[in-house]
Structure formats: structure tokens, C-alpha cells
Amino acid sequence: MNGQRAAAEPYTTRFETEVTAVDGKRVWLETTYFYAEGGGQPADRGRIGDVPVEDVQVVDGEHVHVLADPPSFKAGHRVMCSIDWSFRMYCMRAHTASHVLYGAGRHLLEDLGYGGFDIGEEKIRVDLETTTEIDDDVLIELDDLVNRAVWESRPVSWEDVQVADARERDEIAFNEATEEGAFSRGQVRVVTIGSKDDNGRTTNGSSNPWDVAACGGTHVRNTREIGPVTVLDRSNPGEGLTRVEFAVGPRAIERRAAEKRAALAAKQTLGADVGSISDALEETVERQDALEADKRTLEAELVERALEAADPVERDGERWLVTSVDGLEPEALGDAVREAPDASADVLAVVGETDYPFVVIRSNEAVDAGALVDYLTAEFGGGGGGSSSFAQAGGFDCSADAILEALADGR
């Protein structure tokens, strides 16, 4: 038998065996069906005797069981062991689902390679090497194919194969860095998710299987045992890698429910059926963009009219236009002044007010706009900054009229 007993007999969760050694909280057993952490799969939970198992690791080829407390039993004693079936089954479902996901990737992605895998409490991640960009549409297609493969009740099997023979089979996914536990004494443990025959029935046959991979983990016997799967998101953990995250079981159901609630809320808000939400949302965004563009045009016109109505002031050979505009936020007023067409004035200074008075100054650089802002903040408090040609300030400890007067009088 290649690999761990747990992987070969994943449905075994109770067994009796002899204790071969005890060192504090660490225990060695003659025979064990506890899965030791490896290949991205966490260690099994459970009990040896009446003591909880906190961790299981393979050290020098042997399983070391780390208990919550030093046990009362000693070497030579026989103990009853129990594995937490709920957690074991979660890992079996999650691990098999990762193979189904990789199989879906075989149908959708170019130059596919396996980069890693990890089972977490809330979600599972698979790192894929591919030249295909995994965007939202591809993510949805992966989700669709995974759940179809689950629904099709494809058989899952595992066997030991000579490593040399396995390497000649192009369909087997290898990653010796993460699947070290699958290799032993010239053999490799190969997990196969079966294909469908011409009548739509599934089979373990080698003809066109869904996925074949070197793997030392625990798996269910049939994809239908995986249950609901929801692809959650993707990210880029490193160059050439795309990390796809998914959930199984209750977490997958919760995510589906959240997505359903969001879709129904969008349906009600947009007044469209679920199938048309995307088009309706696109139209809404386009209308919003058009309204924003109209708003910016009106803001620019408001500032332009205010500048046209202002009486110019000659100061040290420079022509100043100083005015005020109500109802605009600082950013909007700044954009409007920056783009104002009045190039005949050397200095444009516009005062506005929201929760506090603020000022926007544009200059031809003969007059330093930044220096003007520094003067105003030194005189009236607040803060601001900018360049010699454009500067803004706000939060003054005075009224907008006081700022306007200071600029108009040249103080």
C-alpha cells in the first residue's frame, strides 16, 4: 500500500490498536487511520482513548499523534481510536472537489499546470498555472462545470502505479513538491475521477476521465458525495499563478444564498428579470455616467459665468479675477477652475463653502498660487497646498467673505 492508511481507507473512523510509544503528549501507534497533515490537507481530528488528538504529523516515516494532554495509557496498552467523521468527511469532500475543479480547468484553460492546494476551515484554494486569464466569465464557467461534474455522479477511485509508468501518462497531473505523500518505493498513488460513456453513464475506465492526478489525500468514492460547491473568487499569489478559492457544504450554500439575495435585490431595484440584470445594470451605469458628465458641464458653466461677471483687478501689472461660487464641493470647484477657459487673467481665485470655506487659485506662475495659499492659511488657519500654478486650501477659521475680501484687496 502506498501512502497513508487513511487515504487508502478513508471511510474507516474507528479502530483498535496497540500503543507502541509515548513521549509526553506524543503517541505512536502500531496501526493508525489518522490522516497526517500533508499535501495541503490538514491532519485528522479525533481521540485516542479518551484524549483529544490535536495534530498528526509524519516524522521519519512514522505517524506522530500529538494529544491535548499526556495520556494515562502507556506503551503496550491497547486503545480504541475514533476519528472525527464530520471533519474527515469535510476534508474528503474538499479534496475531491479540488480535483473536480482541476478537471474543469482542463476543459477551459490553456497550458494548465498544478501549483498548489490548501484546505481551510471556511474555503479551499487551488493554485493553477495557466496562460488563460481567469476573469469573471471564466470563474462562472468553472463553477458551472464543477457542479455539473458533481451532479453527474462520477466515480472516484485510487490505485498505486509505478512512477515510471505514471510519468509516461500525459493525463496525470504531478506536483511532487506538494504531493510528496503520494510517492513511496517507486510507486505513486493516482486518483481518478471517471469519465462518462456514450449513454451518459459514468465509468472508472481510462477513456477520457474527468481528472487524473498524483495525490496522497483522502477522497469520497463518488462526486455526488461532494455536495454543493461554490467558486468564490480568484487572486494572483505569484507570477504565472492564479489562485481559485471555493467552498463546499454549508459555506457554499451560504454564499449561494447571499448571491441569490443580491440578484433578487438588483432585480427589484432595476425592474428587470434575473436574466436581464447585467444588461439593465449596464444601462444604469451608462445613464449615471451621462448624468455625471452633464453635472461636470453645468459646474464648469457655473464657474465660467461667475468669472465672466467678476470685475478684474490690476495688481503689480497682473490681471486678477476674484469671485465666489456656491453649491460646489472642493474637488468639483477645483476641476472647474483648472479647466476654466479664461486665459486673459493672470490669476483666477474662486472661493466656495461647504462645511467650511475653501479657495481654489490658478495662476500663470508670475504670481505663485502656492505662496498665496500659504499666506491665507497663515492668516486664517486651515490647511492646503499645491504648486506655483495651482493650489487649494480650506478649513479656515473665518467666513468665506473674509477670504474673498482678503483676495480682492490684495492683502
From TrEMBL:
InterPro entries per UniProt: Ala-tRNA-synth_IIc_core, Ala-tRNA-synth_IIc_N, Ala-tRNA_ligase, DHHA1_dom, Thr/Ala-tRNA-synth_IIc_edit, Transl_B-barrel_sf, tRNA_SAD
SUPFAM superfamilies: ThrRS/AlaRS common domain (SSF55186), Translation proteins (SSF50447)
Single GO biological process annotation from the record: alanyl-tRNA aminoacylation
Domain Alanyl-transfer RNA synthetases family profile: 1-258
Keyword Chloroplast: no
Family according to the record: Belongs to the class-II aminoacyl-tRNA synthetase family.
Official protein name in the record: DHHA1 domain-containing protein
Lineage of the species this protein comes from: Archaea, Methanobacteriati, Methanobacteriota, Stenosarchaea group, Halobacteria
